[in-house]
Structure to design on (525 residues):
C-alpha cells in the first residue's frame, strides 16, 4: 500500500495550518472575556447597521404589509380593528407593535423597519446566550452567522411579522434552555408562558409548540440530586469532582472556587463557569440511593423534605395556563362578534388550509385561483372560514396519498436554499443564497452528528424545527416560514464550524456526549 505524503496534496499542509490557526483563535475567544465582549459588540453593531442599510435602500412592502399597516393606523385612530371588511383577519400582535412605533415617531414605515433592525441586534445577543451554553466561542460564531444571514436581514427590511416573532420565539427557547438546568424555577416558567403568549398574538401557528417543548424540558431537565460518576468533574476539564458538601454555605464556597479555577484554566470558559454547558467525558446519573450534592439522600434532603420532582410539571402547567388565560380576551372578542367557534384565532385559517390541499394545490400561494362559491356570498367571514375548513378536511380525507406528496413538496419549498417568489427568483439572488444555505445546512448536520451537543439541548432545537416543518407540511410551504427557526439552524452550523476548525471543546479529545452540569438547587426549590 502506498501512503500518500503531503507532497501528493500540496494544499494539505496549508489547510492544516489554517485549521490550527482557527482553533487557536477560537480558544482565545473562548478564554478571553474582554476580547469576546468587544467582538460581540462589533457583531451586534454590524447586524443592526446591515439591517438598517437594507431597510433604507430597499424596504419591502408585500401584500400582507398593507393589512398590517392599515390595522396599525386603525389602532392609532381608535377605530374598529378591521381591514378589507374583515374583523378577525390578522392576529393583533404585530399591528400593535407598529402602532406603538407610529405613536412615537409618526406614521413612517421606515421607523418600524429601523426598529426591526434594532431587534436584529437583540436577536444576535439572544443567540449568543444560547450558544454560550455550549461554549463562548460557539456563541460568538453563531452570533456572527445570525448577523449576516440573508433571510434574517431581508425580512427585517420587510413590514411583516417575521422579525418580531423570531425574536420573541428565540427568547422563549433561550428561557427553555435555561430551564433545562433548573426545571423547577417557576418564575422562569412564567416568563416562558408570557413569551409564548406574545408569540401567539403575533403568529397563531406557534400555539401548540409549547406543549412538546414544555414536556421535554419538564421530563429531561436536571433535578436536584444528580451526582457525577467517575474521576472527572462535570466541567469536563479533568479536575476531580468536589466532595459533596452538607450545607448551602459550603456549596457556595465550592462554586466560587470552581469559578476562579475556570478563569485561570486555559480552554475553559471564563466568567460564570458554573452555568456553562460543558463538553467532556464525565458521566452523570440520578441519585436513587446514596448522598447527592447538597446533602440529599434517597430522594430526600437532610432535613427530611422531599425533592420537588413534580415542580417542573407544575411550572410547565403554569406556562400553558398563562398562554390560555392570556388568549381569552381575543377568543371572547371573536365569539361576541360571530357567535360561533369559541377558540378562533383568525378568519383566514380555513382558506389558508384549503389552498394548501385542494385539487389545484401546488404547495405555494393559490388563493387568487380560488373562486368563492355563489352559495357562500351571504356568509359572514366566520361562516366562510368554517366552510373552507370543512371543505379542506374533506379533501384531506379523500386523497391521503396526494396529501403525502403535497407535504413533501411543501417541506422542500420551506427548506429550499433558493427563493421561489416572483421578482426574487433571479440567478443574481439565488446563486449566492443557494451556496450560503447549502453550506449552512452541511455545517448544521456536522454540528448535530459530531459536535458533541448535549441531547437535552439538541432536543429543544429539534422539536422546534420539527414542529414548524410539520405545520407547513400541512399548510403552505415557503422560505418565509422557516425564518423563525433559522437562528437554531445557524446555531447548529456554528457548532459544526467550530468542530471542523478543531475547537478543543468540540474536537476528538472532547470525549463522549456532553453532560449538563448540575448546579446547586435554586433557592426557590
Amino acid at each position: 500500500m502506498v501512503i500518500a505524503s503531503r507532497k501528493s496534496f500540496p494544499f494539505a499542509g496549508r489547510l492544516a495550518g489554517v485549521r490550527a490557526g482557527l482553533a487557536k483563535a477560537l480558544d482565545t475567544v473562548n478564554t478571553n472575556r474582554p476580547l469576546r465582549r468587544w467582538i460581540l459588540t462589533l457583531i451586534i453593531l454590524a447586524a443592526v447597521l446591515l439591517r438598517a442599510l437594507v431597510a433604507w435602500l430597499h424596504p419591502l412592502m408585500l401584500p400582507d404589509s398593507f393589512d398590517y399597516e392599515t390595522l396599525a393606523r386603525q389602532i392609532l385612530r381608535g377605530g374598529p380593528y378591521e381591514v378589507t371588511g374583515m374583523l378577525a383577519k390578522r392576529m393583533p400582535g404585530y399591528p400593535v407593535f407598529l402602532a406603538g412605533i407610529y405613536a412615537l415617531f409618526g406614521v413612517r414605515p421606515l421607523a418600524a423597519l429601523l426598529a426591526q433592525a434594532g431587534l436584529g441586534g437583540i436577536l444576535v445577543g439572544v443567540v449568543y446566550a444560547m450558544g454560550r451554553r455550549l461554549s463562548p466561542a460557539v456563541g460568538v460564531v453563531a452570533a456572527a452567522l445570525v448577523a449576516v444571514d440573508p433571510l434574517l436581514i431581508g425580512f427585517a427590511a420587510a413590514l411583516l411579522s417575521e422579525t418580531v416573532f423570531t425574536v420573541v420565539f428565540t427568547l422563549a427557547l433561550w428561557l427553555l434552555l435555561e430551564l433545562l438546568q433548573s426545571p423547577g424555577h417557576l418564575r422562569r416558567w412564567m416568563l416562558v408562558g408570557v413569551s409564548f403568549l406574545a408569540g401567539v398574538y403575533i403568529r397563531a401557528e406557534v400555539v401548540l409548540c409549547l406543549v412538546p417543548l414544555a414536556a421535554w424540558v419538564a421530563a429531561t431537565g436536571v433535578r436536584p440530586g444528580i451526582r457525577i460518576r467517575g474521576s472527572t468533574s462535570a466541567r469536563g476539564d479533568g479536575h476531580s469532582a468536589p466532595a459533596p458538601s452538607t450545607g448551602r454555605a459550603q456549596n457556595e464556597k465550592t462554586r466560587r472556587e470552581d469559578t476562579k479555577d475556570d478563569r485561570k484554566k486555559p480552554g475553559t470558559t471564563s466568567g460564570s463557569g458554573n452555568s456553562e454547558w460543558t463538553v467532556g467525558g464525565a458521566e452523570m446519573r440520578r441519585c436513587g440511593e446514596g448522598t447527592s450534592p447538597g446533602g440529599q439522600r434517597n430522594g430526600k434532603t437532610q432535613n427530611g423534605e422531599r425533592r420537588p420532582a413534580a415542580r417542573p410539571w407544575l411550572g410547565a402547567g403554569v406556562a400553558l395556563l398563562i398562554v390560555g388565560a392570556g388568549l381569552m380576551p381575543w377568543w371572547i372578542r371573536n365569539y361576541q362578534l360571530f357567535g360561533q367557534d369559541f377558540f378562533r384565532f383568525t378568519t383566514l385559517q380555513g382558506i389558508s388550509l384549503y389552498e394548501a390541499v385542494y385539487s389545484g394545490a401546488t404547495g405555494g400561494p393559490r388563493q387568487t385561483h380560488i373562486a368563492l362559491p355563489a352559495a357562500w356570498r351571504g356568509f359572514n367571514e366566520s361562516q366562510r372560514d368554517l366552510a373552507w375548513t370543512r371543505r379542506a378536511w374533506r379533501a384531506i380525507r379523500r386523497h391521503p396519498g396526494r396529501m403525502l406528496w403535497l407535504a413533501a413538496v411543501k417541506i422542500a419549498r420551506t427548506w429550499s436554499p433558493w427563493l421561489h417568489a416572483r421578482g426574487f427568483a433571479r440567478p443574481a439572488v439565488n446563486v449566492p443564497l443557494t451556496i450560503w444555505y447549502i453550506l449552512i445546512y452541511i455545517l448544521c448536520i456536522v454540528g448535530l452528528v459530531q459536535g458533541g451537543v448535549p441531547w437535552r439541548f439538541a432536543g429543544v432545537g429539534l422539536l422546534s424545527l420539527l414542529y414548524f416543518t410539520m405545520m407547513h407540511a400541512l399548510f403552505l410551504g415557503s422560505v418565509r416560514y422557516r425564518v423563525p427557526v433559522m437562528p437554531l439552524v445557524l446555531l447548529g452550523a456554528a457548532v459544526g464550524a467550530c468542530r471542523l476548525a478543531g475547537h478543543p471543546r468540540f474536537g476528538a479529545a472532547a470525549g463522549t456526549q456532553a453532560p449538563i452540569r448540575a448546579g446547586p438547587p435554586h433557592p426557590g426549590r
User: Anything to note?
Assistant: Strands lie at 226-229, 283-286, 291-292, 296-297. Confidence is low (pLDDT under 50) at residues 225-251, 261-307, 506-525. Residues 311-338 form the longest helix (28 residues).
